[in-house]
Amino acid sequence: MGWFVGLAIWAWLAWACLGNASPLAAQTRPPADYANVQLRDPAQEAQAAALMATLRCLVCQGQSIADSDADMAGDMRALVRRRVAAGESAEEVRDWLIARYGDYVTYDPPVSAVTLPLWLTPLVLLAIGLWIARASFRRRRGHE
Amino acid sequence: MRRWLLWLPLAVFALVVVFAVRELRAPSDRTVYSAMVGKTVPEFRLEPIVKGKPGLGVADLKSGQPRLLNVFASWCVPCIAEAPQLMKLKAIGVPIDAVAIRDTGPAIAQFLARYGDPYQRIGDDRDSRVQLSLGSSGVPETFVIDGRGVVVKQHVGDIREDDVAALAQAWREAR
């Protein structure tokens, strides 16, 4: 009985490996240099990694390029590392991408007429909350 | 307590309902458009990818004649769907150049043999560098470029039957 279970596990493993091999074979090109390879300089890598976490993967819209396995995200990581390695600041790389894709490409959008409500709404809500709290405290004191 | 304040939560709720219904009826457009429309194509030079067809550089897009720049790949299924429409545009006389994303020579040659070859030049964009510098967020995409290398129009996604006329028109107007 034991040998049969062993055989079944081996067959399953072989099947799983073959199943996993086909998507790899379907890729037409290996990932770009720097897509999954860190920069040599730890300071530069830290700068690039921090930037990558705030950049949107354009084909998988809900993820950052640091989190995504999409080919295009890999190419975007390579682009960020290449430019940082060439001496550009994270801010410059971000501006380069914004010039091409608009603010949509960053998860950390600059303050503008469109994004202002995002920043102001919490403050406004807090002010309303304080106003309501003040009114209700005052009322309670009045009753006592 | 002022009486009208009692109605405030209901009013806010009604506002949310109006907003939700409007978004459900016409979902917002999630397409990522390039911010390069109206700007000059940035400097690049791509090697040829198939035998007998030149690569692509910025100089080719500044030839004085407007042209289409098709961003495609042999591994992209909608690119197969748009192939007949590109052949139609070619037949009208629209010059088309291409950037092949993450692709190989044999795969492109097979693709062209099977689905037609509307391209004058094809550049080998092996790590999507040029695609990213154009603000393109996927394949296929098509840019109309005037004779001075300025992007006039971007078409995101595959070109359907009823897009052909608009693209031909944009190309004519760019002259």
TrEMBL record, chain A:
<keyword id="KW-0201">Cytochrome c-type biogenesis</keyword>
<protein>
    <recommendedName>
        <fullName>Cytochrome c-type biogenesis protein</fullName>
    </recommendedName>
</protein>
<feature type="transmembrane region" description="Helical">
    <location>
        <begin position="111"/>
        <end position="133"/>
    </location>
</feature>
<dbReference type="Pfam" id="PF03918">
    <property type="entry name" value="CcmH"/>
</dbReference>
<keyword id="KW-0812">Transmembrane</keyword>
<dbReference type="GO" id="GO:0005886">
    <property type="term" value="C:plasma membrane"/>
</dbReference>
<keyword id="KW-0479">Metal-binding</keyword>
<dbReference type="GO" id="GO:0046872">
    <property type="term" value="F:metal ion binding"/>
</dbReference>
<keyword id="KW-0472">Membrane</keyword>
<keyword id="KW-1133">Transmembrane helix</keyword>
<comment type="similarity">
    <text>Belongs to the CcmH/CycL/Ccl2/NrfF family.</text>
</comment>
<keyword id="KW-0408">Iron</keyword>
<comment type="function">
    <text>Required for the biogenesis of c-type cytochromes. Possible subunit of a heme lyase.</text>
</comment>
<dbReference type="InterPro" id="IPR038297">
    <property type="entry name" value="CcmH/CycL/NrfF/Ccl2_sf"/>
</dbReference>
<keyword id="KW-0732">Signal</keyword>
<keyword id="KW-0349">Heme</keyword>
<dbReference type="InterPro" id="IPR005616">
    <property type="entry name" value="CcmH/CycL/Ccl2/NrfF_N"/>
</dbReference>
<dbReference type="InterPro" id="IPR051263">
    <property type="entry name" value="C-type_cytochrome_biogenesis"/>
</dbReference>
<feature type="domain" description="CcmH/CycL/Ccl2/NrfF N-terminal">
    <location>
        <begin position="32"/>
        <end position="141"/>
    </location>
</feature>
<dbReference type="GO" id="GO:0017004">
    <property type="term" value="P:cytochrome complex assembly"/>
</dbReference>
From TrEMBL, chain B:
<dbReference type="GO" id="GO:0016491">
    <property type="term" value="F:oxidoreductase activity"/>
</dbReference>
<protein>
    <submittedName>
        <fullName>Thiol:disulfide interchange protein DsbE</fullName>
    </submittedName>
</protein>
<dbReference type="InterPro" id="IPR050553">
    <property type="entry name" value="Thioredoxin_ResA/DsbE_sf"/>
</dbReference>
<dbReference type="GO" id="GO:0030313">
    <property type="term" value="C:cell envelope"/>
</dbReference>
<dbReference type="InterPro" id="IPR013766">
    <property type="entry name" value="Thioredoxin_domain"/>
</dbReference>
<dbReference type="Pfam" id="PF08534">
    <property type="entry name" value="Redoxin"/>
</dbReference>
<feature type="domain" description="Thioredoxin">
    <location>
        <begin position="35"/>
        <end position="173"/>
    </location>
</feature>
<keyword id="KW-1015">Disulfide bond</keyword>
<keyword id="KW-0676">Redox-active center</keyword>
<dbReference type="InterPro" id="IPR036249">
    <property type="entry name" value="Thioredoxin-like_sf"/>
</dbReference>
<dbReference type="GO" id="GO:0017004">
    <property type="term" value="P:cytochrome complex assembly"/>
</dbReference>
<keyword id="KW-0201">Cytochrome c-type biogenesis</keyword>
<dbReference type="InterPro" id="IPR013740">
    <property type="entry name" value="Redoxin"/>
</dbReference>
